Amino acid sequence: MALTGIQIFKLLPKTNCKECGVPTCLAFAMNLASGKAELDSCPYVSEEARTQLSEASAPPIRPIVVGNGVRKATTGGETVQYRHEKTFYSPTLLAALVGSDIAAADLEAKLKDWNAFQYERVGLNLRPELVAVKDANGNADAFAAVAKQVAETSEFNVILITEDTDVMKAGVAACAFKRPLMYAATEANADAMGAIAKENDLPLAVKAASIDGLTALTEKLTGMGLKDLVLDPGSREPKQSHQDMIAIRRAALKNGNRAVGFPTIAFPCEMASNLDVETMIAAMYIAKYGGIVVLSDFAGESLFPLLLERLNIFTDPQRPMTVTEGIYPINNPDENSRVLVTTNFALTYFIVSGEIEASKVPTWLLIKDSEGLSVLTAWAAGKFAGDDVGMFVKKSGIIDKVKHQEIVIPGYAAAIVGDVEEELPGWTITVGPREAAHIPGFLRA
User: Fold this and answer.
1) Cα 263 to Cα 74: distance, rounded to the nearest angstrom
2) DSSP conformational letter for 255
3) What is the Cα–Cα distance from 159 to 267, expressed in whole angstroms?
4) Do residues 386 and 416 lie in contact, with contact meaning Cβ atoms separated by under 8 Å?
5) Looking at the 3D structure of the chain, how many domains does it have?
């Protein structure tokens, strides 16, 4: 049972050192109790107190690591119900389904196609993480062979789907090194599945016909010493499943119910007859509140919008995406190439740099730290002022790379021309286009 703020306060050192970021130990205790702080923020807590506080300091929804290798990922770990309250940390993991009766050559081709679904967006590589291997006929050898092929010949991590414990043992033996997610423990096989998961230190999905049924199973499994669980409330009708996902999240976060304090798994592949409808249902789970979503297939027209939705939802709304301040050469510029300057808002950088690349004109692009604000917003907030831009140009080192003294500022920041000229006497300050789409024509002129 979670501790109250006063109970936590009694276990803290009571130094009021402020090193945790709040003025008093009591305030820190209250934040810890409400899930707004982490115990590691206190540098002076004793080991004895740390042990007693472990439950209170743990996230209401346990973070679960699925897989190994480059696509290893964490699901769960959330501390708030709504994104605007803080942020969501662990993006929904996306999986596609294959049957254990698939031919090796067909699986090889499918994995090759799926692995190609990787998209560059604002400097990030967006891609799916998982392949779900489903037992098609109770053949343990065939199940193990497919799991082994996925694990050994691709970057994807694995979900093993079977309620037959003998088949599950074969699948685990074939790909245990990839730390697969076992699916699923039910009322009928919980003891055996729990034993396999505990013996191999693997995460285990739990399936029941209702949330109450889940609660009974998770209490049983945690009593066996298992901690890494994933929940499936069993509902396959979208409206009911949506309600169940919300109920599980609220029970864990608002009511402190540790029995359902685990990430969830959803199966749009079992809720629709075609991939288009599956995609719409998957989009719902990315928003509320699927930890893992299993589709029947990966297709670019389906996967790309889901990855973008995931990126938008799981980007911290209070911390804009940025790129590093500095000099970015585009199209192999030389000492005669033009110099443009803009802010370090990631979207601004990638749009501007993309237009410069499309122009084929060698260009130096200077990125100034504006705390992640766009040009107009940064200028209005005083983060892209003329004197600051001028000082940045001098300190950036661009003077050593070009033999001219001309710099192009964004059209939306035309008002800073005078201040830049004062900071850079002898330089020509040119006002560039307002819209990035006009940059290629401007550079070629």
Assistant:
1) 10
2) S
3) 12
4) yes
5) 3
Strand 124-126 to 119-121 pairing: antiparallel
Full-model pTM: 0.78
Residue 243 lies in a domain: yes
Check residue 2 and give its pLDDT.
Answer: 58
pLDDT in tens, 119-169: 988 778 999 999 999 999 999 999 999 999 999 999 999 999 999 999 999
Q: Is residue 285 located within the same domain as residue 375? A: no
Least confident of 44-58, 95-109, 125-139, 407-421: 44-58
DSSP labels, 343-399? E-BHHHHHHHHHHHHHHT--EEEEEE--TT--HHHHHHTTSS-HHHHHHHHHHHTGG
Which residues lie below 8 Å from residue 370, measured CB to CB, with a gap of 6+?
343, 344, 345, 378, 383, 384
User: Tokens 């501007």 label which residue?
Assistant: 352
SS (H, E, C) 291-334: CEEEECCCCHHHHHHHHHHHHHHCCCCCCCCECCCEEEEECCCC
> Is residue 309 domain-shared with residue 361, that is, in the same domain?
no
In whole angstroms, what is the distance from residue 410 CA to residue 74 CA?
40
CA 77 – CA 161 distance, rounded (Å): 24
Q: So what's the pLDDT on residue 1?
A: 46
Q: Report pLDDT for 235.
A: 96
- Other Cβ atoms closer than 10 A to 10: 13
Q: Is residue 434 assigned to a domain?
A: yes
Q: State yes or no: cis peptide before 184, omega within 30 of 0.
A: yes
Domain that holds residue 17: 5-56
CATH number at residue 173: 3.20.20.20
AA letter at 381: A
Segment 246-261 shows an average pLDDT of: 93
Looking at residue 244, its pLDDT comes to 97
* pLDDT of residue 40 exceeding 90: no
352: domain CATH number is 3.40.50.11600
CA distance 144 to 401: 59
The shares of helix, strand and coil residues in the chain, as percent rounded to the nearest 5, are 45, 15, 40
| 296: nearest Cα among 272, 330, 329 | 272
Query: How many Cβ atoms are within 10 Å of 106's Cβ, its own excluded?
Result: 10
